[in-house]
Design goal:
The chain has 400 residues and is an all-alpha fold. The chain has one domain. 79% of the residues lie in helices and 0% in strands. It has 15 helices and no strands. The longest helix has 40 residues. It is globular. Keywords: Cell membrane, Membrane, Transmembrane, Transmembrane helix. It is found in: Cell membrane. Pfam families: Chromate_transp (PF02417).
Length: 400
Amino acid sequence: MEAATRKKRTERLRAVMEILAVSTKLGLTSFGGPAAHLGYFYNEYIKRRQWIDDRNYADLVALCQFLPGPASSQVGIVIGVMRAGLLGGIAAWIGFTLPSVIALVLFAHLIQGFDVAQAGWVHGLKLVAVAIVAQAVLSMGQKLAPDRNRATIAILAMAFVLLWPTAWSQIVAMFLAAISGMILYKGNGDAGLPAIRVPVRRSIAAGSLILFVVLLIFLPLLANSGSSHWLSVFDSFYRSGSLVFGGGHVVLPLLEREAVPAGWLSKEEFLAGYGAAQAVPGPLFTFAAYLGALMGGWFGALVATLGIFLPAFLLVVGALPFWDMLRKKPSIQGALAGVNAAVVGILIAALYNPIWTSTIADGIDFAMAAILFAGLTFWKAPPWLVVIIGALGGWLASVL
């Protein structure tokens, strides 16, 4: 019995370390923002390692799109939780987040004012993002929008998001898609849908949701008492992470309203960090680490990073066990069919704006992006190799 327990713990530790290694690789190579991150995750976790299948991955993406916070980070956390429990989720978050945290803190200390976002190799990485998202659109579209109804939902969601570019447009688009799916696919329930393995007790999930609400209500009260500057900083970043929908780009104006008027840093310092955040891999929410580092070095970076990501972790851990129960209901399955199609449309919209519009400026850009796309799709080149080729190509194009 004791030997079996030790073996189980060893296997769990091995799984956690594997998750840490794989997510760190993704954290070092995942350029291009949330839409591109989902493409990287799909290639690594689904196609290469087959940790979960396409259907479950799409459902998890839909869940994380509904929740506030950084959707791509939440998807990574959920996959880590499913693979190795709460420690697996923490390992997935650390691996994916830490590289960009370190890069942005170093930028805050060493290279403020250097316009790295305009460097040629960074433009090459943006071209990689075009190829990654295009491949994700192709692969997910074939699976999640294979018929006329779902393809129509995807195109309408794309048009809706592009024509109404606000923080709420994605949420409204998915809500309308869910209603459409419930109507169109209400008789297509799949009682044999494989369960998502969730090694989290419902008591822990409920506790996570309760803690999320308690912190959201009481942190501002404690911060307003003026007892601690760092408590006020943690509260500001926690609220920003709790209330933002639409991904990392949407959180930036929220943080600007919190940090600059309070005198924590100047507007020029804020904008310099924004440029650096575009140039590093990993989640854009790690911009908080840069802001925290300007306020208080590595300790400030830690406070800000934990504050902005904690809501995301609490919400996905709290929602996941109940999500598996709900998604098996025929009405929920119909809604998910619509939402999954809308996710494809939202990815198409993201491919166009901001990725395509801010990257493809001429025929050379288009040709390089097409070559990178072919390398991923037809030559099956690993993403890290495509990242290196894209960076080198962008640098060469800038010096020739």
